[in-house]
Structures are given as structure tokens and as C-alpha cells.
Amino acid sequence: MKNMKNQSDKELIYTESKTLRNETLDAISYDFLDKLKVIPYLTDDMVVTTQQVANYYECSLDSVKTIIKRNREEFESDGMIILTGTELDNFKEKILQGSNEPDKISSKTRSLTILTKRSLLRIGMLMTSNLMATEIIFLILKKRLRLIGSHGQFNVKLESLKENV
Length: 165
Description:
Layout: H1 9-16, H2 18-27, H3 32-36, E1 48-49, H4 50-57, H5 61-70, H6 72-77, E2 81-84, H7 85-96, E3 111-115, H8 117-126, H9 131-150
Antiparallel strand pairs: 1-3, 2-3
Helix pairs in contact: 4-5, 8-9
């Protein structure tokens, strides 16, 4: 996992405030995630597994699972589902249809956590000491300032965000 030293207070605001995370997730588009790094979605609904999230952030699967476990309610409200049994079998079939990558989900998989694009972004907001997450937070803050500035509430210069990043 890539680490960052001296993570700034501006980045930590999202790890500390559920309300701010939700407000931000409601206010911005998630399309910039694909521009930072390619995400191999499982379906047209743009869902990913926990392993794909770990690959995206270049961190351990355990790190992703820990974040989800500590903030389960938030991820469930984002549309996270855990597939088992018949639901999992049906999902595997759906994924295999027309896929050039039949090994996306192992036949030995007994349980599969499926996350939305919103959840992918939420994980980045909750991570600490991760380069990809830090870049995402910076872009979120930049987008939020544009939204705020465009509504005339107040004008903040982007340079002030670059401190400690």
C-alpha cells in the first residue's frame, strides 16, 4: 500500500464526518474516478467487488473490509449487497454471459460483497495514508469549492487547499 506522511486536516475532515461525506456524495458526480484510474466494473450498473476496490486503491483487501465493517450502515445506504447462495449463483451467471473474463468471480466463492460507485468513492473518503485516496480527496475539495463559488456563497482560492498535500 502506498502511504502518505502528514495527511492534512483538510483530508481528514471526510474520515471524521459522516454528515460531510453524505453531503459531498450527494453533491458531486463520481465520473472522475474513472479518469483517475480504470475500474473494471462487473456490470453495466457499475458495481465492483471488495477485491476490485482494493486493486483500485492499491491496498490490502483487509483494509477495505475493515473500512466497510466500521461503516457498514453507510455502505448499506449506498446500495452495498452481500450475495450468497442462489443470488450469488445467478449473479455469477449474469457476469459470465458475454464476458471475455470468465474468472472474474471464482467458482469457489461462497459470498460476494458488491459495492456501488458511490461506495467506491466513500472508501476513498474514509481511507487514511493512501495516495489514491489523497488524490481523490483533493479533487473532491476542488469540485466542492467550484460548486460553492458558483453559488456565490464565498470565494476560496484553490491554492489554500494545496497546503500540506
